[in-house]
Amino acid sequence: MLIHEGRSRTPGIDRRLAWSFAGIAGALNAAGFCAFGTFTSNMSGNVSALADHLGLGEFAIALPVLALVGAFMAGAMGATLLIAAGRHHRLSGVYAYSVLTEALLLAGLGILGFCLPTGWHGAILATGLSFLLGLQNATITQITDARVRTTHVTGMVTDLGIGLGHRLSRDGGASGPDREKMRLYGVTVAAFLAGGVTGVAAWRVLGSTLLFVVAGLLALIAIPGIASARRRTASQGHRPTEPGYSCSSRETT
Asked: pTM score, two decimals?
């Protein structure tokens, strides 16, 4: 999932990537709302809330929301810089390294949560989650050329509605989104929803320990991708990996 690029990516690989990471993002987003009363990946809602607070002159309340938006953007910027640096140094599996970085930082955030004073606990953890979800969304966006987004579903729900409307109209859906995109969007939305339900239930049982569980899942996705990239580089005699390289059909990580 984290190795194929360009034309070597298939719809099946994109769907596996979508449900894996949308489920994780949905879990963290919903758990964050359950724990801290704020969404950590929904920047549309956060920007709207920021506008409301600024318009009402509630500047002190607006600052934490601004921090969430800024952290998400910083995470996206960090992922882009990390990927660019990896490409510059011809590092194979750079996207897998980005996901592994997310896993390590998430585990670090979980450790930090045990050390924070009560008054700062929620704000710091929520802001940290926003940073990591921004990092994740930017990573997935870049490897799929923006076909897959994992931390928000507004656009996909809209496109699903458009597609269904076209299918019900007289033109039979000929001008609507193609069937493969509909499947991808449906999988992503369903995974985000299922992840959210699971995240809330898990947070109520595990609390901050959920962050370590999710970090472990991310590492389990990233490490095989890194190993696969290294094997492929070795088999090529350490030639740099080019976007669009067609890998063996057995390499689907």
From this structure: 0.86
- DSSP secondary structure letters along the chain: --S--GGG--HHHHHHHHHHHHHHHHHHHHHHHHHHSS-SS-HHHHHHHHHHHHHTT-HHHHHHHHHHHHHHHHHHHHHHHHHHHHHHTT-TTHHHHHHHHHHHHHHHHHHHHHHS-HHHHHHHHHHHHHHHHHHHHHHHHHHTTTS---S--HHHHHHHHHHHHHHHSTTTTTTS--HHHHHHHHHHHHHHHHHHHHHHHHHHHHTTHHHHHHHHHHHHHHHHHHHHHHHHHHHTTSPPPPTTPPPPTT---
Cβ atoms within 10 A of the Cβ of 162, count? 15
pLDDT in tens, 23-80: 999 999 998 888 888 889 989 889 999 999 999 999 999 999 999 999 999 999 999 9
Two structure tokens written together for 166: 């076209």
Please report, in angstroms and rounded to a whole number, the separation of the first and last CA atoms in the chain. Answer: 4
Location of structure tokens 């955030």: 109
Q: Report phi then psi at 36, rounded to 5.
A: -115, -5
Confidence of residue 186 (pLDDT cuts 50, 70, 90): very high
User: pLDDT tens-digit profile of 201-241?
Assistant: 999 999 889 999 999 999 999 999 898 888 877 777 645 54
